[in-house]
Each structure stands twice: as C-alpha cells, then as structure tokens.
Amino acid sequence: MKNFKFLLSTTLALMLANGCKKEEANNNNPSSNLPTLSTTTITAITNTTASSGGSVNTDGGSSIISRGVCWSINQNPIITDSKTTDGKGVGSFTSSITGLTENTIYYLRAYATNSSGTGYGNALMFTSGGTVTDIEGNVYSTVTIGTQVWMKENLKITKYRNGNTILTTSATNIPTDSTSKYQWANYNDSNVATYGRLYTWYTVTDSRNICPVGWHVPSDAEWTTLTDYLGSEEISGGKMKENGTSHWNYPNTGANNSSGFTALPGGYRIYDNGSFWQVGGVGDWWSASEKDATNAWGRGLSSKYSFATRDNYNKSYGFSVRCIKD
Question: What is the CATH number of domain 33-127?
C-alpha cells in the first residue's frame, strides 16, 4: 500500500511538472500563438505608389485585430515602419502603398496582429518607378513590371539619340522608298503630349537609336515576357490599358491598368495611302523584331477588347513606341 501511494504521488508530481514545463514552453515561445500569413505579389509600381496585400491563413488562436502591409528600405520591415491598415480577421486583403520615393529599392511584407503580437508574411523586394529624359528634354514616367522597367508613356522624340533629325512628311504624302524612316504627330501636334508620335519600323531600328541612353525598343520576346507576366495575351490587355474613357473610346473593355503600364490609344498611320486611323480606339506598338523582309512584329490593344494581340505588320506603318530599360 505504501509503495502504491508512493508511485501515485510520484506520477502526479511528474504530470504536474510536465504540465508546468509545457506552459512555460508556450510562454517562452509566443511565436506559436502568432498569425501565419503570406504576402501578395507587388503590382502597379509607379514613382510613388504600388499595390500588394496578403492572405492570413491562421489567426494563432485569437482574433486578428489589425492587418496590412509594411515597407521600408530595410530588408525586414516591421509595423513601426510605413504601413497600411486593411481590416481584421483571416482571409485575403489588398493594400495600396503610397508615399514612395522615386528610384528607390524597398522591402515589403504583410503583417497581422492578434493579442499575442504580430506575425509577418514573406518579404518582397521592389524598386519604385522614376523618370527618364530624352535628347529633346521630354520627361517620361517609368514603371517596373516584374523584372522589366518600361516607359509608361509613348515616345515623343523627333531626333535620334545622336541629335540627327527624324524625317517627317505631310499626312497625305506616301513615301516611295522601301525603307522609309519617318515620324508623325498623327493628325496634329496637339496629340503628341498625350499619345506621343508614330514611327515606321525602319526608324525604330535605325542604328542611331530613338530611345534615351540606357533604354531600347523592346524585342518581340520582351513584349512576350510582359504579357506572360500579366497572365497571358488573353487577359493582359485590360491590365495594360489606362482605365476609364478620358483617352480610350467607350467601352474600354476590361481596362483597370493594374500593371501601371498606362497604355494609350495613339492609333496608327497606314503606309499605302498616308491616312491616320483609330486615335482613341486602338494602340499599336512596334517591337524591334522582324518577321521577314516586309513585316515586323508588334503588339496591339483595342477599346473593344481586354486581350493584347501579337501580329506582324508592314514595316512602313506608323506605330507608337514604348522603350524598355537595358
């Protein structure tokens, strides 16, 4: 009997000791009670803004009282740095980042706070947008999309990088040479500030260069990298087009400009009769890649559709140009 009482009391003591150790372990490891979450890919990066968010997977055992994203120039931002506040509870949320400094590397991660403290998602790095200036002093805003940095405006230049003038002709004049190097202000000069100029493919690929130093006309493959990053040609058009109908014709189907590319419909010039078409309705951009002796690859967007088209066009057409950073 004494042995039984001794064994019972020893067992109870061990159980209490183990229970105390478990409680002590939990108190010493509060991270086990923190929320778990992930950070959403950063999109629509501009000079001063971006979009992101997160997804809270578990609440750590107590209610989420605050969530959002935080960012800093330090690799592991915390909530005492810049942050957003985007609701409560588990699930997904979106965040609008503002107040960025141009051309700056930032780190961002989602956070969620409960009564035990704050948990963080994975940290992501991004570079805010900036500006680039061409040889004539035109200043263009830029945007980072995935691993690429694009101008978010159509090219306006009338000179090559070396200062040589790019030729132009009247709206009705049809160039007779087979490798015409011209630019046009479309119907009139008032269109240039918004829609940029139109260029033949021969101008775009001239060795004197039309993009600013450190930039170039994108290849067909670089355009494909952009549309693939945005999901596919079938859905990328809406993500690239400026939203609304201030510049695009109604209905501007699917446009949300979530990429920040801010595509504008500069129309095009037909090579065989010299006429201009579809300002407000269509945007067409050259690539630097040719298909054959007569045609080259380009990309097109329409106010009627949310997809981006890849097609080849006669090299003497007048199309818009977007430059991409080297």
Answer: 2.60.40.10
